[in-house]
Design goal:
Blueprint: E1 2-8, H1 11-27, E2 31-37, H2 39-44, E3 47-51, H3 60-65, H4 67-84, E4 88-92, H5 95-107, E5 111-115, H6 127-134, E6 137-139, H7 143-150, E7 156-157, H8 162-173, H9 179-182, E8 190-194, H10 199-210, E9 220-225, H11 232-235, E10 243-247, H12 250-255, E11 259-263, H13 266-273, E12 278-282, H14 286-295, H15 303-308, E13 314-317, H16 323-327
Parallel strand pairs: 1-2, 1-4, 2-3, 4-5, 5-6, 6-7, 8-9, 8-11, 9-10, 11-12, 12-13
Helix pairs in contact: 4-5, 5-6
C-alpha cells in the first residue's frame, strides 16, 4: 500500500490537494492518505489531521502573534510524519510551514514532492538553496517559474496550472445556468465580490469592496462567501438593497457576472479564466505591508499581471484601495 502524507494550509491548497488525491486514486487503487487540508480533501478520503481553518495565518504581524501555535503545529507535524512513515510527502504551497517540514523530512530520508512552488522568485530567493537540498521533485504551475528554478539546478517540472482542469470543463458544460433563479437574484448585471477565504482577508477587505455598491444602483453586487467561515463575517454587509451573499458558488457567480472585484490571490486567475473583467484589491495590516514592501521584488501582485508580464488588470493596493478609485 502506498502511503501519502499531504500538507495544504489554505483553501486554494485544499482545492488543488483534493484534485490531486482524486487523480492519485485513479492511478493507484492501493493507497492511504493522511493530510492537513480542508473539506474538499476530506471528501476525497483519508484521515484529516488538521483543518485549514486552524492554519491560515497571513502577514508578518499575524504570524508573530500566533507564533506559539505555529511552532506547536510544526512540532506535531514532524512527530506525526515519523509515526505514519509515508512513502512520499507531498507539500502544497504554504511555504513558511512546508519548507521547514521539507527540510526535516529530507533529513529523515523521506521522499519529498513540492506541488505549487513557494514564490521565492518574488522574495527570499535564498530559499532556492533550501528547496534544491530538501525537495526531490518540484512541480510548478506558472510558466516563468520553470526557467527560474531550472537555472538554480532544482529538479523541476511544469505540468500546467490545475485551474485549467478545474474551470475549463465546467465553463463549457453550461452547468451554471439557473444561478440567478436559484439565489433569487434580480435581472440587473451582476458584479462579483471575491474577498478571499481567510478570516483576516475578509475582515480587512470586504467592507472596502462593499462600499462601492451604493454608488452603482444599476448593478447588483454578490459576495462569494465560503461556508467554512463564520457567517457573521458576511451577514454584517448583507443588509444593503443591491447586495446578496451566496455560499460556495464562486464559479457559478463568475460565470454569470458582468465584472468582479477580487482580493489578490488564486481568485484573480479564476476570474480571468472565466473572462470576467476585474479590479484586484488588497489591504494588509500596515506593519505587515510595510515589511513586505521592503522585501518583495515584483512589479505586480496579481497572478494575471505576473503571468502576462504587464498590467492587464488594475491593482488597488493598501492606500489606493479606496471607494473613489474602486468606483472609477
Amino acid at each position: 500500500m502506498a502511503r501519502y502524507y499531504i500538507i495544504a494550509g489554505e483553501a486554494s491548497g485544499d482545492m488543488h490537494g483534493a484534485n490531486l488525491m482524486k487523480q492519485l486514486i485513479k492511478l493507484d487503487n492501493d493507497h492511504d492518505f493522511r493530510f492537513w487540508g480542508g473539506d474538499r480533501m476530506s471528501l476525497a478520503g483519508g484521515h484529516l489531521v488538521k483543518h485549514t481553518k486552524e492554519l491560515a495565518f497571513m502577514g508578518f504581524l499575524e504570524v508573530l502573534l500566533n507564533i506559539r501555535t505555529i511552532l506547536r503545529n510544526i512540532r506535531y507535524c514532524k512527530w506525526d510524519i515519523l509515526e505514519y512513515k509515508p512513502d512520499v510527502l507531498i507539500l502544497i504551497d504554504y511555504p513558511g510551514f512546508n519548507l521547514r517540514i521539507a527540510e526535516f523530512a529530507s533529513k529523515k530520508g523521506i521522499r519529498v514532492v513540492y506541488y505549487i512552488s513557494p514564490q521565492v522568485w518574488a522574495w527570499k530567493s535564498s530559499r532556492v538553496k533550501k528547496i534544491k537540498k530538501s525537495v526531490d521533485k518540484l512541480l510548478v504551475i506558472l510558466p516563468f517559474e520553470m526557467d527560474f528554478y531550472r537555472g538554480s539546478g532544482v529538479n523541476v517540472e511544469f505540468p500546467g496550472h490545475p485551474l485549467l482542469d478545474e474551470i475549463v470543463p465546467k465553463r463549457k458544460s453550461g452547468s451554471f445556468e439557473g444561478f440567478r433563479q436559484k439565489n433569487s437574484l434580480p435581472g440587473k448585471p451582476l458584479v462579483a465580490l471575491l474577498p478571499g477565504s481567510r478570516t483576516q482577508e475578509i475582515s480587512k477587505i470586504l467592507n472596502g469592496m462593499v462600499s462601492v455598491a451604493s454608488c452603482f444602483s444599476e448593478y447588483h453586487f454578490v459576495v462569494a462567501a465560503v461556508s467554512e467561515q463564520d457567517r457573521s463575517l458576511y451577514e454584517r454587509v448583507a443588509r444593503l438593497d443591491n447586495l446578496s451573499v451566496v455560499y460556495d458558488q464562486t464559479y457559478a457567480l463568475l460565470a454569470n457576472s458582468h465584472a468582479a472585484i477580487v482580493a489578490s490571490g488564486t481568485a484573480t486567475l479564476e476570474a480571468a479564466l472565466f473572462g470576467v473583467p476585474q479590479v484586484v484589491v488588497y489591504r494588509a495590516n500596515p506593519v505587515s505591508y510595510h515589511i513586505a514592501k521592503q522585501l518583495v521584488n515584483i512589479e505586480f501582485i496579481s497572478l494575471v499581471n505576473l503571468i502576462m508580464g504587464r498590467e492587464v488588470i488594475r491593482e488597488l493596493i493598501q492606500g489606493d484601495f479606496t471607494t473613489e478609485k474602486l468606483g472609477r
